[in-house]
Amino acid sequence: MNVWHLVTREIAHRRLTFALAVAAVAAAVGGLVAVTGLVGAHGHETQRALVTLEDDVRRITKGLGYNVLIIHKDQDLGEFYSRGHASKTMPESTVRRLADSDVITVRHLLPSLHWKLDWPEQKFPIILMGTRGEVPLTHRDPKKPIQQAVQPGTAVVGHVLHERLGVAEGRPITLLGKTFTVEKVHPPRGNDDDITVWLDLADAQALLGQEGRVNAILALSCFCAEATLDGIAGEITRVLPEARAIVLGPQEAARRAARARAAEHGQAMTREWGTFAAWILRLGVAGCTVWVGLLALGNVRRRRHEIGILRAIGVRSGQILAMVLGRAILIGLVGAVIGYAGGAAVAMAWAARGAGADGAGDLAPLVRPATIAAVLTLAPVLSALASVVPAVLAARQDPATVLHEE
Predict the structure, then answer these.
(1) What is the number of structural domains in the chain?
(2) Could you tell me the pTM of the whole model?
């Protein structure tokens, strides 16, 4: 007697039992697929949130200001620290050489003429900062500047100058015999910015008799493995042998600590979600296997007398074994198809509801052919494995004993 004929006849005779078994597998597979998909979608959403967090941290730490100072290599540091500015100057074209190089450890290059002096018209000590705005690196996409350029003929002043000298936005000031319009007054910053006057670089060079010269290039280090003190200094001196780089400690330490904390938080969340997904998969597979095995065992027990009659009319034990396993494989396959379709639909609908159209896109791995093939193969195999013990028990039944019980 053909095994598949026995399977189909048994299914036709016990349609409700077969439907319940298929529903059990479909529920297990569907739940596993849905939860796995939602965990994956949540993981993608977490990664996007972490990228946003890192971007926020990057923007916040960028607000700490430049953390690399490039000056002439012959500048005496004792004089530099005591005077508050470098007396040795460099050609303004120096910054273009750096921007056109393959430098990777610094960005946001700001050429400046930084000078401490007494404001003769106001008889007040100030810091004069001339800058033309940041020079972008030619081999990188331009970034939003940390400090905006000052327009020619205008000035930006610190809060103490506004408070002590009455300097106000929109009003003219005279500095070293030349008149400028105050474009902006900075709020209190609690450092020497409060007594600084920012001018266009060309205006500051003309006032100080330093046409075409700068005495400092400010920069921001990248958050990369190469951006160590030695790495930055070595790369700068390779491109600009006449210069030296000084890394400003407090800003750099704060920036690195903040970014490292954000990266550590992101890695911890990724590990937690990976562990959670792995446990969900293990529990789902184990639960599905036990469920199908119990259903198969119950089915065999209920059919003891039918199996005994089949054995009595000449059906071999191997055919009985194949019949039980074939039914289990068919249950697993049909249940996998229904469960996979339902689970994927639920996951996509939930993800789209929670995260918009992009959220459903995070579930793309669920509809890959390899994933579908794996699910449609694994479910029948597990269903068959779960039914091995009930199938062996059915095949080993003694028909005389079973019929005698009848």
Answers:
(1) 2
(2) 0.51
